[in-house]
C-alpha cells in the first residue's frame, strides 16, 4: 500500500494558476488565496473534509470560481491543507524534542501545543490508521516491547484507504511526522514515564480525540484542555504497587 497522491507535484504546481512558474501573484490575488486557505482550515476543521467548496468560498467571501481558479479541484485544496497541518505538527514535535530536556515534558508539550492549535481536526483520516500488517512500506521506527512475553503492539502505517476525504500529505511529510513523534514516544518510554504499550498511533489518536469542534471558542478550548488532561493521565506509567 502506498499513500494516495502520485500526482501531488503536478497538482500543486497548477494550484496557484501559474502552471508551476515562479510568477508572483498580484496583491489582490495573494489576498484572495490567503482568505481561501484560512477559510478552508476553518470549514474543514468544523465540518470535516467532506464540506463542499461552496462553504469554503462563502467563508472566504469570494466566489466559488475564485476558489477553483486557485485550486482546480477539491482534492488539490484538501492536499494543501493536509500538507500544511502535517508540517505544522512536525515542527511542533521537533520544537518539543529540542527544547524540553525531560522526556515526559517534551511529549506533553507536543500534545498540548498540537491540541491547542486544532491540528487534530485537520488530520485526514485515510492517511493514518493503526495496522498490524507486515507489508506496510512506511513505518514508525520499531518500538521496543516492555518484555519479550508481551504481544506485539499495533504499528502506525501510511495507507491508501477509500474515504470521502480525497487528499493527504505527501509521503515524505507524513513520514517525517511519524519519525519525530516516534522519538518523543521512545524517549518517554525509556525514561519509564510512558506506559510501555503506548504507540505513536495512540499519541496521534490523542491529538485527534482531544480536539472537538464546538461552536463556542471558549467552550472548545476548555473542553480540549480538560479532555487532554484526562488522556495524558491515561498515557503516563504508574509505579508498580
From TrEMBL:
<feature type="DNA-binding region" description="H-T-H motif">
    <location>
        <begin position="52"/>
        <end position="71"/>
    </location>
</feature>
<dbReference type="InterPro" id="IPR036271">
    <property type="entry name" value="Tet_transcr_reg_TetR-rel_C_sf"/>
</dbReference>
<feature type="region of interest" description="Disordered">
    <location>
        <begin position="1"/>
        <end position="25"/>
    </location>
</feature>
<keyword id="KW-0805">Transcription regulation</keyword>
<feature type="domain" description="HTH tetR-type">
    <location>
        <begin position="30"/>
        <end position="89"/>
    </location>
</feature>
<dbReference type="InterPro" id="IPR050109">
    <property type="entry name" value="HTH-type_TetR-like_transc_reg"/>
</dbReference>
<dbReference type="InterPro" id="IPR001647">
    <property type="entry name" value="HTH_TetR"/>
</dbReference>
<dbReference type="InterPro" id="IPR009057">
    <property type="entry name" value="Homeodomain-like_sf"/>
</dbReference>
<dbReference type="InterPro" id="IPR049445">
    <property type="entry name" value="TetR_SbtR-like_C"/>
</dbReference>
<feature type="compositionally biased region" description="Polar residues">
    <location>
        <begin position="1"/>
        <end position="12"/>
    </location>
</feature>
<keyword id="KW-0238">DNA-binding</keyword>
<keyword id="KW-0804">Transcription</keyword>
<protein>
    <submittedName>
        <fullName>Helix-turn-helix domain-containing protein</fullName>
    </submittedName>
</protein>
<dbReference type="Pfam" id="PF21597">
    <property type="entry name" value="TetR_C_43"/>
</dbReference>
<dbReference type="Pfam" id="PF00440">
    <property type="entry name" value="TetR_N"/>
</dbReference>
Amino acid at each position: 500500500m502506498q499513500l494516495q497522491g502520485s500526482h501531488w507535484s503536478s497538482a500543486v504546481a497548477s494550484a496557484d494558476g501559474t502552471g508551476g512558474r515562479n510568477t508572483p501573484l498580484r496583491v489582490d490575488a495573494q489576498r484572495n488565496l490567503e482568505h481561501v486557505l484560512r477559510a478552508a482550515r476553518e470549514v474543514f476543521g468544523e465540518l470535516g473534509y467532506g464540506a463542499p467548496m461552496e462553504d469554503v468560498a462563502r467563508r472566504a467571501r469570494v466566489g466559488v470560481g475564485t476558489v477553483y481558479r486557485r485550486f482546480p479541484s477539491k482534492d488539490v485544496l484538501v492536499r494543501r491543507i493536509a500538507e500544511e497541518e502535517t508540517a505544522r505538527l512536525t515542527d511542533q514535535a521537533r520544537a518539543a524534542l529540542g527544547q524540553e530536556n525531560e522526556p515526559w515534558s517534551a511529549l506533553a508539550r507536543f500534545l498540548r501545543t498540537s491540541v491547542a492549535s486544532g491540528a487534530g481536526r485537520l488530520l485526514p483520516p485515510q492517511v493514518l490508521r493503526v495496522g498490524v500488517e507486515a507489508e506496510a512500506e512506511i513505518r514508525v521506527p520499531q518500538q521496543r516491547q516492555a518484555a519479550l512475553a508481551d504481544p506485539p503492539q499495533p504499528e502506525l502505517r501510511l495507507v491508501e484507504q477509500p474515504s470521502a476525504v480525497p487528499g493527504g500529505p505527501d509521503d515524505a511529510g507524513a513520514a517525517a511526522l511519524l519519525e519525530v513523534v516516534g522519538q518523543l514516544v521512545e524517549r518517554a518510554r525509556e525514561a519509564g514515564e510512558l506506559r510501555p504499550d503506548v504507540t505513536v498511533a495512540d499519541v496521534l489518536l490523542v491529538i485527534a480525540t482531544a480536539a472537538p469542534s464546538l461552536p463556542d471558542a471558549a467552550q472548545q478550548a476548555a473542553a480540549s484542555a480538560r479532555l487532554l488532561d484526562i488522556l495524558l493521565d491515561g498515557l503516563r506509567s504508574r509505579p508498580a504497587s
